[in-house]
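// run 5 | inverse folding | seed 20
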């Protein structure tokens, strides 16, 4: 049995350790829920998206909280309309924030859409802020979006990216350092990783999978267009060079509803890329990944 002195010494040592331990800096941001009424003026609301604005000046995010299949199960044929409406609202808010709009001043431009309270928060990372905001504001997100993917989209995209890199460095070993380049796009605290940055070409790859949270993925792809555009403003000097957004669609076996959503999202991204004067190319999984990667590898190999 410990003596009182020994117990006190142990407690003091623990206190000293906690006091002297280096403190981890927390990620600070503000977030806001966006809500829509399934039936306008009914007073019933569901959260359709989460807007997050980091305090460090990095790019804001608008993340969808709804999935097509659960909505169609609950609301029937109207679920598809509601899902598309939510995507439109989230895209409009993403554009507003990306062009310098303030979270506190956003006003929805249609009836039945509501901006929630702006909540300051801090957590260990942006991803932790996203998870917390989704869990505390959306039943659809809190339930985990039901059905997990057979293969997470980030792993599938990683395999595709790795195959492009393999094809390139097989003949151009010196190009290895051009892949996954971390760039300080918005100062020291605004870092982002670009899939490929070369001499006259920069490529950002993104996933679009209508069986998962495609609204969030579409917003991510929009943000990657913004990252590419930022290359034109920093010293790397891509003023007159080629910028390309590559969309990886990991599967082809889609339901008619999923195929319609995919067509809607790719059309939206193609339009956004065209307006920004950024190239747009789609690659499909579910087949020979080497063949899918070849068009991107050829472009990179031509970037002498």
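// decoded
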């Amino acid at each position: 049995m410990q003596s009182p002195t020994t117990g006190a010494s142990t407690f003091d040592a623990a206190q000293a350790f906690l006091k002297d331990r280096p403190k981890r800096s927390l990620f600070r941001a503000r977030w806001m829920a966006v809500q829509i009424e399934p039936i306008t003026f009914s007073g019933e609301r569901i959260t359709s998206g989460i807007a997050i604005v980091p305090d460090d000046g990095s790019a804001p995010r608008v993340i969808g909280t709804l999935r097509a299949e659960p909505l169609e199960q609950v609301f029937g044929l109207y679920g598809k309309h509601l899902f598309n409406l939510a995507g439109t609202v989230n895209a409009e808010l993403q554009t507003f924030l990306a062009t310098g709009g303030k979270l506190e001043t956003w006003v929805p431009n249609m009836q039945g859409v509501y901006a929630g309270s702006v909540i300051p928060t801090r957590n260990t990372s942006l991803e932790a802020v996203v998870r917390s905001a989704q869990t505390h504001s959306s039943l659809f997100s809190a339930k985990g979006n039901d059905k997990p993917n057979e293969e997470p989209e980030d792993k599938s995209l990683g395999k595709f990216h790795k195959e492009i890199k393999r094809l390139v460095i097989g003949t151009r070993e010196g190009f290895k350092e051009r892949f996954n380049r971390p760039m300080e796009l918005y100062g020291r605290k605004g870092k982002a990783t670009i899939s490929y940055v070369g001499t006259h070409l920069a490529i950002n790859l993104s996933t679009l999978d209508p069986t998962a949270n495609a609204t969030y993925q579409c917003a991510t792809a929009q943000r990657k267009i913004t990252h590419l555009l930022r290359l034109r403003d920093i010293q790397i000097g891509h003023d007159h060079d080629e910028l390309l957004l590559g969309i990886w669609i990991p599967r082809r076996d889609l339901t008619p509803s999923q195929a319609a959503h995919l067509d809607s999202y790719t059309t939206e991204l193609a339009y956004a890329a065209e307006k920004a004067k950024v190239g747009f190319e789609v690659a499909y999984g579910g087949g020979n990944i080497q063949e899918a990667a070849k068009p991107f590898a050829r472009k990179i190999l031509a970037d002498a």
